[in-house]
Request: fold
Amino acid sequence: MADETRRWGNLPMASGRLETTEATIGGADDITTGSGIDIVLGGAQGDEIDLGDAADIAIGDHGYIVWAVRADALKVIEATVTDNATGGSDTIRGAAARTS
Ligand SMILES: [Ca+2]
Reply:
């Protein structure tokens, strides 16, 4: 059985919530993730987001993602854009390794 508390590198997190705090702050970001599980929020303006291998979660604008690790898999509980007025036009690319 996988160690459910070590799914995020060395961080002891099996569940959580990640959110942006100010919809109007931020630039046109170029974000590239590695091969682990990643959670990305692009925020303001048009962002380029390239996700590596693994089951990643990404939204391009201001919002939040609530997740949990259950039965050795990443589960999204809720992913919501709360303000896209300044979010811009985002490009989000995933890798091919996802299996579920
Ligand atoms: Ca954006």
